[in-house]
Amino acid sequence: MFEGVIGYIIGGAVIGILARFFKPGADPMGWILTILLGIAGALVGSRLAAMLNLTGTVMVWACAIVAAIVLLFLYETIRKKTAKAA
């Protein structure tokens, strides 16, 4: 079980870093939020890949990275709205 948690953290970090690398613009967030973004992207991306019947490892990782990029856009949108409201 412990190996699974470590795997999600490492995979989330890799996916989060790749999402921040591929998305243009500055992303002022820390490494913990990057890992959480990557983990959420991995979960959403793996569900999306399963719904699309994509079984290849590369395709599942691509879906995870794309999902993390979308989540990063959503995070920035929400952060900008709360900054304007304050």
Automatic annotation (TrEMBL):
Q: Which InterPro entries match?
A: Transgly_assoc (IPR007341)
Q: State whether keyword Metal-binding applies.
A: no
Q: Name one GO cellular component term.
A: plasma membrane
Where it mainly occurs, coarsely classed, is membrane
Q: How does this protein sit in the membrane?
A: Multi-pass membrane protein
Q: Provide the transmembrane region boundaries.
A: 6-22, 29-52, 58-75
List keywords of the entry alphabetically.
Cell membrane, Membrane, Transmembrane, Transmembrane helix
List the coiled-coil residues: none
Where is the protein situated, by its record's location annotation? Answer: Cell membrane
Task: Report the sequence similarity comment from the record.
Answer: Belongs to the UPF0410 family.
What name does the UniProt record give this protein? GlsB/YeaQ/YmgE family stress response membrane protein
